From TrEMBL:
Organism in which the protein naturally occurs: Niastella caeni
Domain SRP54-type proteins GTP-binding: from-to ranges: 268-281
GO CC terms of this entry: signal recognition particle
Main location: cytoplasm
Name the UniProt record assigns to this protein: Signal recognition particle protein
Molecular function terms from GO: 7S RNA binding; GTP binding; GTPase activity
One GO term (biological process): SRP-dependent cotranslational protein targeting to membrane
Domain comment in the entry: Composed of three domains: the N-terminal N domain, which is responsible for interactions with the ribosome, the central G domain, which binds GTP, and the C-terminal M domain, which binds the RNA and the signal sequence of the RNC.
Keywords carried by this UniProt record: Cytoplasm, GTP-binding, Hydrolase, Nucleotide-binding, Ribonucleoprotein, RNA-binding, Signal recognition particle
Highest taxon of source: Bacteria
Protein localization: Cytoplasm
Complete-protein stretch covered: 1 to 295 of 438
Family to which this protein belongs: Belongs to the GTP-binding SRP family. SRP54 subfamily.
Amino acid sequence: MFENLTDRLESAFKQIKGEGRITELNIAATVKDIRRALVDADVNYKIAKEFTDKVKDKALGNKVLTAVSPGQLMVKIVKDELAELMGGSESDFNAKGNPAVILIAGLQGSGKTTFSAKLANFLKTRSRLSPMLVAADIYRPAAIDQLKVLGEQIQVDVYSEPENKNAVQIATNAIREARSKNKNVVIIDTAGRLAIDEAMMTEVANVKSAVNPQEILFVVDSMTGQDAVNTAKAFNDRLNFTGVVLTKLDGDTRGGAALSIKYTVQKPIKFVSSGEKLDTLDVFYPERMAQRILG
Ligand code: GDP
């Protein structure tokens, strides 16, 4: 992932790394290359421009520093700004409650169901919680079966009502069931559509009002670039979600989604998911991701 962006940034730094001094001229040239690299990685032009303006200001402000080489200085500034763009420091994830309710939303195919199972496994193994998964996709019977198969693999109970076509009822019944079984986290996997759809949004919003979740996680396929950002905006306008989950980071992603989502919706990326194995969920650390992008 991000190989292309990493390569492009590396070549953007090449010239300045060979210079003995940091000057307005070599800053300007480097910054221009960085901006192009970001735009080609599917970062919105406005975000890329604002980003490189900040980098430029910081570099100019540090011109007199002689302790570090111009190359090192630019790399450090870009790394710090990349981390800042992606949210600065890591954000909290709240899984406390009786039970804690976590609502999972996103388009069909984004990786919601896979992520729901990964999160259940993560909370069970790392946080020693007792989770329950809820299949609240009332349109696709296959989605219920898929969650059941995943639940079996990680040995987490999956609640479903295959005959019930009311997602709000399913969710509220599930929470009652969780209480009676002493489960302390309920993860609700909602129905998605291939594109933003009013009926889907209304349904998820209704489930939200009924169950009052601690966390509403918006799941998005990182390979969809600018579309990921637009989808995030639409879901956030409607659901006011608490965090973003970026999936498929193992795929051929250019990085645009990871770099633009926080800026656009002002909500943190909380988890990143790469691969289909259920034990591969990672908490998102902006600084580590910035380091990875810089190679
Ligand atoms: P949902 O429709 O949003 O519930 O999405 P699914 O969880 O069913 O995922 C859609 C497809 O993407 C499935 O084939 C998953 O196996 C696959 N998938 C999910 N997460 C990842 C991931 O992080 N990496 C890769 N490579 N594939 C994933």
